[in-house]
Task: inverse folding
C-alpha cells in the first residue's frame, strides 16, 4: 500500500494527465529547450513569457509542449510566466512522486540569478520573513498571518547602478524571491509590482542618442529573474545538477552593464 503522501501525488499526476486533450500545442520547439534527459525526467530551459500551465489568458504553455513530446509528462514545480530558467518535468508517475517528495522535503537545491536595482552587498544573507498571499494575486510580508519563508542572497557582481544577485530559496512560496529582495531594499530590475524600475539604456550609456520622434523602450520587457540551476537526486540515486544558460534578454542586460560599468 502506498504512503498517503505518495498516493496523493500519484492521484494528482493521473488527474492532470487526463486533461491532455484540452491542451493546445504551443508554438514552441520543445526539444530546443531540453537541458537534461533520461528515462525518467526531462529538464528544460523555460523561455520567458510562457506559462508553466494553461492560464485564462492563453492556452499556449510549457506543459502542453511537454505532452506533445511525451504524452504522460507532468511538471514537478512551477515558474512564473515572466521567469525564465530550469524546470523539471516527470515522464511517468514514479518520477513525479520521486521529485515531489524531494520538493516537499526541501531536498532540491534551487538557485536563481537576478539583476537588482542599486549597489548591493550581501553574503549569504538570510531573509526569514513570512509571506501572505493577497486576493489580487500579489504577496506581502506579514509576520502575523504569513507562511514561513526563507531565502539566502549573495551578491555576485556590482555594477555602476545595479547588482547581479544569487538567490537560494529554502521554501517555495509564491513570489518569494521578489518580495524578499524588495524587503531588503533591492527590488528586481523591471519588477514594478514590487518596486523595481525598468532598465533604460540611456540611464547608463554615455552619449546615448535616441532617434527623433521615438520613445525609448526598456531593454527588458520583464523582470530580470532567471532560474539558474536545480540540484536533485535522480531515480538511480545519483545527484544531478542542471544549469540553464541566460536567455537573450538577460544576456543583453548583463552585457550592457559590463560595458557601461
Result:
Amino acid at each position: 500500500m502506498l504512503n498517503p503522501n505518495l498516493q496523493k501525488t500519484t492521484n494528482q499526476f493521473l488527474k492532470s494527465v487526463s486533461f491532455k486533450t484540452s491542451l493546445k500545442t504551443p508554438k514552441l520547439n520543445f526539444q530546443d529547450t531540453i537541458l537534461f534527459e533520461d528515462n525518467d525526467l526531462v529538464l528544460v530551459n523555460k523561455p520567458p513569457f510562457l506559462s508553466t500551465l494553461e492560464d485564462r489568458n492563453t492556452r499556449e504553455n510549457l506543459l502542453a509542449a511537454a505532452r506533445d513530446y511525451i504524452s504522460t509528462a507532468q511538471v514537478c514545480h512551477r515558474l512564473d510566466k515572466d521567469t525564465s530558467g530550469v524546470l523539471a518535468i516527470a515522464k511517468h508517475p514514479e518520477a513525479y512522486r520521486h521529485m515531489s517528495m524531494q520538493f516537499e522535503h526541501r531536498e532540491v537545491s534551487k538557485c536563481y540569478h537576478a539583476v537588482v536595482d542599486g549597489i548591493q552587498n550581501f553574503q549569504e544573507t538570510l531573509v526569514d520573513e513570512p509571506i501572505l498571499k493577497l486576493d489580487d494575486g500579489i504577496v506581502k510580508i506579514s509576520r502575523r498571518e504569513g507562511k514561513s519563508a526563507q531565502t539566502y542572497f549573495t551578491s555576485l557582481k556590482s555594477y555602476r547602478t545595479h547588482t547581479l544577485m544569487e538567490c537560494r530559496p529554502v521554501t517555495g512560496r509564491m513570489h518569494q524571491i521578489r518580495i524578499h529582495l524588495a524587503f531588503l531594499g533591492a527590488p528586481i530590475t523591471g519588477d514594478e509590482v514590487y518596486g523595481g524600475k525598468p532598465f533604460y539604456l540611456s540611464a547608463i550609456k554615455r552619449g546615448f542618442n535616441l532617434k527623433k520622434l521615438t520613445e525609448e523602450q526598456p531593454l527588458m520587457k520583464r523582470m530580470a529573474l532567471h532560474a539558474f540551476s536545480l540540484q536533485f537526486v535522480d531515480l538511480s540515486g545519483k545527484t544531478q545538477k542542471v544549469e540553464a544558460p541566460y536567455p537573450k534578454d538577460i544576456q543583453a542586460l548583463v552585457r550592457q552593464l559590463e560595458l557601461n560599468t
Helices lie at 4-17, 62-69, 93-104, 176-183, 248-259. The chain has five helices and twelve strands. The radius of gyration is 19 Å.
